[in-house]
Amino acid sequence: xxLSLSMGTxxxxxxxxxxxxxxxxxxxxxxxxxxxxxxxxxxxxxxxGELADARHAVIAAVGGDGFVDAAAVVGxxxxxxxxADATGIPLDEMAVDATIELRENLGLNDYGMxxxxxxxP
Amino acid sequence: MATSKQVADxxxxxxxxxxxxxxxxxxxxxxxxxxxxxxTRFARSGEWWTGAERIAIATQSRTVYECPFCKERKEAxxxxxxxxxxxxxxxxxxxxxDEMIDILHLAMTDPTRMTxxxxxxxxxxxxxxxxxxxxxxxxxxxxxxxQACRGLGVPLHQLPAPVPGExxxxxxEVDPVGEAFVAMMPPRQPAPPNDDxxxxxxxxxxxxxxxxxxxxxxxxxxxxxAQYLPLDKALDxxxxxxxxxxxxxxxxxxVSAINDxxx
Lengths: 121, 263
Known about the structure:
The structure holds 2 protein chains of 2 kinds.
Chain A: H1 2-8, H2 17-21, H3 33-45, H4 48-87, H5 93-98, H6 100-106, H7 114-118
Helix pairs in contact in A: 3-4
Chain B: H1 10-20, H2 29-43, H3 51-63, H4 68-75, H5 98-109, H6 116-120, H7 129-152, H8 205-208, H9 214-227, H10 245-258
């Protein structure tokens, strides 16, 4: 949702399929999106070699400061997902209505946490 | 709104800066300062755990990713269908109750299968949902720091030595459990001394989730401000960093999807 909103402020739409399916499908309207997504995948589950390659690709694409931002954001959301799931918080009210179509299109309603997050205990 | 004015321990900050100097590009000081501040807080007594226990929790939260029992449990149809013993750092064996070790491992390695009843069952060990939230806050903060370091290609920061002291054992006024697995502060501006936790423009479940332990919210805000965005800027799409906002959100979304996180 936040990616759609941020692209929307630039008057552009974005295909979100690659968010779920992987870096090869990331919409190229996001500058260097595939390289960044590949980096996120490498940090979370890549080998040291894959991560080193992904790191160099990001630095070449977006520069040193952008690379530092990328590493920091990946770390940040490794935390946020655990906070959300391990405390069982529901989706914020504003996001429930705003993401109906998005959730259906990307199959997010099939996630194990979906029923619980939409209908808290 | 009040502002927290805690500063990092100078020795811890120097150690973090030395790690960051090993990155092949310069790392902004804001990131090092945030990491050092949160590590400094780890070492001090919290609301429900002593400094020694908090460092044990941090150590455990690093061990979980090499825990064979956690791998076996994650592959099982139900995490409660298998029994076993978690990998524990020998230096901290006996510091934490087994029940806390077990739920911390689940929260870190398989959080989508956490349940309210698993948290309630901590009471059999004399623990509360507040003990859980504080431990979770330490574990996820360190995960955030460690994964940033892995991405940057620098060593994981050394955990500090614990500082003696007793927990404050102050439970804030919270709504009863209902919206989530844990009790949360009400969705309004908190009264002092917790009026720095959020304001009317930043009342998100993602912040309230940890509000049973206000310092866990402060850690979350400290790290978010340095590693992502100040949370009161989350809906200001003109606010970005060296990366454009759409690039930051792409990374956030991809990390969430890899973790099967619906939120």
